[in-house]
Amino acid sequence: MKLLITGANGFVGKNLTVHLDEMKDVDYVTFTRQNTLDDVPSLLEGVDCVVHLAGVNRPETEDEFAKGNVDLTQALLSKIESTIESTGRARSIIYSSSIQAERSNPYGVSKLNAEKAVIEYGTRNDVAVRVYRLANVFGKWCKPNYNSMVATFCHNICRDLPIQVNDESAEVKLVYVDDVCVELIGMARQMSANQAAKGVTYREVEPVYTATVGEIAQALSDFKASRTSLVTERVGDGFTRKLYSTYISYLPRESFSYKVPKYGDERGVFVEMLKTKDSGQFSFFTAHPGITRGGHYHHTKNEKFLVIKGQARFCFRHMVTSEIHELFTDGNTPEIVETAPGWSHDITNVGDDEMVVMLWANEIFDRENPDTYAAPVQPPELSE
Q: From CA 367, how far away is CA 263, in angstroms rounded?
């Protein structure tokens, strides 16, 4: 498959070309501001489908909407049509429009008229044309302080700059740039393989997310605050996952890392890494040779330990039967040791070097209700 991508240096174009670079069976050429329309015939050599992303969405004057969207599209299509006789083929077109085409503002009108030009091209030449009226696209590499609220908010919030929210309750529809790329590539494959029906079809990129301006601003502010509180938002799925990924992509390089508190005493150090709202927290601790940590039990709380350096002895004592159990593990053998409620437990560094242990607890530590009760464990050799 070979594509011609217009507007390849724009927000969607940059993401699309990176996705395409990952594919061994795809070739593409680009039409950018560095090209002229006279370059189009040569660029079309071997091209199966044209992905038309180029356009203007925030010009200095309103008449530039028509020039950058309608006039450019018409001129591009004219150049494409001029090659039909010599090549014996009319290229399929994928056109990136906007939901603003449903409105009467200058930008929307220009996108609607550009759509009409693409539709007329498809009708004249009996080829497949797909028009995507995209919602507000968000994701990495979108220019801040331009025409994307999400990009501007991300850029400013992670730099401690103020943001302007005119109407917190205003709803916006959004699509994620990676979802856009996946859809466009899938459609381009169908067109290139002559598997797309001829004629004009309006398509949507899914999923489309709906959120208020206030909700987005609050979510981004919470992302920033999580570096201090260590409590992460639910960033593993859906819109929040994609919004968080977008936010992180705007971090300045000097913010790629951040420090977390470290608590130390004569036994070693304890460091909390990450806390979740409903899936516990992650931390690690160290222990010097011969040091024992723990010596307590829980009613409901449970923990998972992973020794990643050193040698450890875990001891357990049942709080009712006084049954004793011990086991040994070390950093050379990945092995999870899980504590059970109702068993007092401790861990001793039985090696000659510092011991480092990762720890997951199923709940965030609550100083008011820690569910942690001191109860020393007596190993078998000490109870004789």
A: 16
Three-state DSSP class for residue 326: strand
- CATH code of the domain in which 369 resides: 2.60.120.10
Residues of the chain with pLDDT under 50: 382-384
Q: Are residues 121 and 201 in the same domain?
A: yes
Strands of the sheet containing 171-176, edge to edge, are 136-138, 171-176, 209-212
Active site residues: 107
Three-state DSSP at 216 gives helix
Helix or strand (DSSP H, E) at 86: helix 84-87
Angular region, 76: left φ>0, alpha ψ -120 to 50, beta rest: alpha
Asked if 53 and 12 count as a contact pair (C-beta separation under 8 A), the reply is yes
What is the rounded CA–CA span in Å between residue 45 and residue 383?
85
Two structure tokens written together for 106? 């200058």
By three-state DSSP, how is residue 186 classified? helix
Tokens of 112: 């609607």
Q: Are residues 59 and 167 in the same domain?
A: yes
Q: Residue 270 sits in which domain range?
A: 262-383
The verdict on pTM exceeding 0.70 is yes
Look at residue 158 and tell me if it is in a domain: no
Tens digit of each residue's pLDDT (9 = 90 or more) over 251-271: 999 999 999 999 999 999 999
The predicted structure's pLDDT at residue 384: 42
Q: What are the backbone dihedrals phi and psi of residue 377, each rounded to the nearest 5 degrees, phi first?
A: -100, 130
The amino acid that residue 34 corresponds to is: Q
Number of domains in the chain: 2
The distance of Cα 260 from the centroid of its chain, to the nearest Å, equals 23
Buried b (16+ CB within 10 A) or exposed e, 203-242: eebeeebebebebbbebbebbbebeeebebbebeeebbeb
pLDDT tens digit string along 326-342? 999 999 999 999 999 99
Tokens encoding 179:
């979802």
DSSP label of 261: -
Q: Virtual CA dihedral for 245, 249, 252, 254, nearest 10 degrees?
A: 60
Q: Facing residues of 348 across strands?
A: 292, 313
Domain assignment present for residue 122? The answer is yes
pLDDT score, position 24: 93
